[in-house]
TrEMBL record, chains A, B:
Keywords: Coiled coil, DNA-binding, Nucleus, Transcription, Transcription regulation. Its main location: nucleus. One of its GO terms (cellular component) is nucleus. Residues 48-97 form the BHLH domain. It holds the Pfam family bHLH-TF_ACT-like_plant. This is BHLH domain-containing protein. It comes from the Eukaryota. GO terms for biological process: regulation of DNA-templated transcription. Homodimer. GO terms for molecular function: DNA binding. It is found in: Nucleus. Residues 87-114 form a coiled coil.
Amino acid sequence: MDNCDEFKHYWDTNLFLQTEELDSSWGIDETAFSGYYDSSSPDGAQSCAASKNIVSERNRRKKLNDRLYALRAVVPNITKMDKASIIKDAIEHIQQLHEQERRIQSEISELESGKLKSNIVFDFDQETPFNSKSKKKKIEQSYDSGGSQSSPIDVLELRVSYMGERTVVVSLTCSKRTDTMVKLCEIFESLKLKIINANITAFSGRVLKTVFVERRRS
Amino acid sequence: MDNCDEFKHYWDTNLFLQTEELDSSWGIDETAFSGYYDSSSPDGAQSCAASKNIVSERNRRKKLNDRLYALRAVVPNITKMDKASIIKDAIEHIQQLHEQERRIQSEISELESGKLKSNIVFDFDQETPFNSKSKKKKIEQSYDSGGSQSSPIDVLELRVSYMGERTVVVSLTCSKRTDTMVKLCEIFESLKLKIINANITAFSGRVLKTVFVERRRS
DNA sequence: GGGTACACGTGAATC
DNA sequence: TGATTCACGTGTACC
């Protein structure tokens, strides 16, 4: 409401003055200017064209102000009521939306169907503080040293869901290659997680492994 | 490039004329206006203030035009080079981004953690033409008639993936209620699908069922 | 040549 | 009071 009132203060008064001059001051100006022009050249057609131009320009200004008003209406973050500030805020807002769109799109495409990187790094630090520093190291170590580098694990899909307070579900799909199953077991063993339930299935050149893990108490 | 050239045609020429007048025509105008004003009132202070106002206004216009130019640069869909059209396109683009953001957000929240509708309808028609008209009917029928309506199956997540040419993986997560497991079995039995592998697990008030189905040959 | 779009200088209003 | 912002009328360039 504060912004609204300030906006009305800035704009409606101006628009009101504008329409007001369309009635009162406008006639005065016309007579004054006609007198000035008539003293030099009493041309009616030119005066008519001039007034046409005046009203045309007035409409153009009003349209542009209305557009700017509408632009102001669709931009949420309000700072000042300047014309320049309005455009500036609109620009920043558009850039912000673009960045957010790009971020979300990449997140979706990577989360839903994109391939993950071949290096498997389970980083449970972000929201699950069961001391994973050592485990993370172990994973990388066992994967980098123990596994044969000739056939890395090609993770097609990896989903980590947090169900309830202490249950983590890791669902992993990878291409079936040499010792893929063994490697997966090694990796999950190296994690030393408290596994509630694990299921591995091989079919049509792919390996699906679903593991239910209980998080340690912090 | 066409738009770019047209834009330069509209703007750069104007800006060039503006800066040009700042050098050459500006001095001419100053002398002319100073002569006009000096004839009526030879006030140096007022003239100085007037020129201050002039350059100030000139900078303001330039800033506003630059902002409008920058706004134009961040809006992808170009129609016309009008000032009003620029603002209009910016408004439409912002509204479009807002709508898209709202759509994606709702899609994400519904896809990732939201509940699906209680009515289970396996519509395999869209990309898997193994005659499912009858099956679909059977599902709805068995679900609507056989199941006890007091505790409907609350599907939390349903994913249908097509792996290879003839394998369909149906992954289903629902809340664990009375006879949820039995109902799920009934539903999958009523489908009369060629099931390769099925796995049901119950944990923490939820039931997860993963079924590997081989599609019939068409 | 009517029509459109623009930059310009200017007076007024607000802070 | 000086700085800033605005609407206005006008001349000009382009179709």
